[in-house]
Amino acid sequence: MRTLVLNAGYEPLGVVSDRRALVLVMNGKASVLDADAEHPVCGVDDAWARPRVILLRNYIRIPMSRTAPVTRRGVLRRDRARCGYCGATAGTVDHILPRSRGGVDSWENLVACCLRCNNLKGDRTPAEMGWSLRWKPQAPREGAWTVRGVEREQPQWEPYLAPHTVAA
Question: What is the pLDDT of the chain when averaged over all its residues?
Fold first, then answer.
């Protein structure tokens, strides 16, 4: 089980094991916002609800530029493992403008791609193939992407990972 850690300002910081989260709570460094009472953590003398979301008591200062690095796993996750050309299940990543022609590893130039489309396309551009992309690739927005350790979001985390808007 994994636990979402929120900064004192309710911004998501990362994901830790449920045991690490329980230690933070027991040492008074965090408080539990959401817990799973059906699957408790059992000790010798007591049992505690398994924390799903914790809030740190002290604010942790984080750098302003927390952009997600460009990785194969990140591109597949951004595109929900769907091929950008045909919509089939994707297992590879394709450069829209091939590297052999000066294409770079960027969020805007990479798209998830099935093996069939990747092999057919080769080192050509989609325009040369007569193909079009199903969506425009772009860098992921804030939210779960800026949180370290979040690979698969849990439904209970959704309210805490949603972008916060400030009322004017």
Answer: 84
- Indicate the pTM of the whole model: 0.57
Inform me whether the pLDDT recorded for 106 exceeds 90. yes
| Beta pairing partners, 55 | 6, 31
DSSP 164: P
Domains and CATH numbers, the chain: 2-64+142-161 (no CATH), 72-129 (1.10.30.50)
Specify the pLDDT at position 64: 60
Closest of 54, 52, 51, 61 to residue 6, by C-alpha: 54
Quickly list DSSP for 56-124. ESSPPP--S--PPPP-HHHHHHHTTTB-TTT-SBP-EEEESS-GGGT--S-TTTEEEE-HHHHHHHTTS
**Tokens 């000066």, residue located:** 102
- 156 φ/ψ sector (left φ>0, alpha ψ -120 to 50, else beta): alpha
The residue ranking higher by pLDDT, 150 or 100, is 100
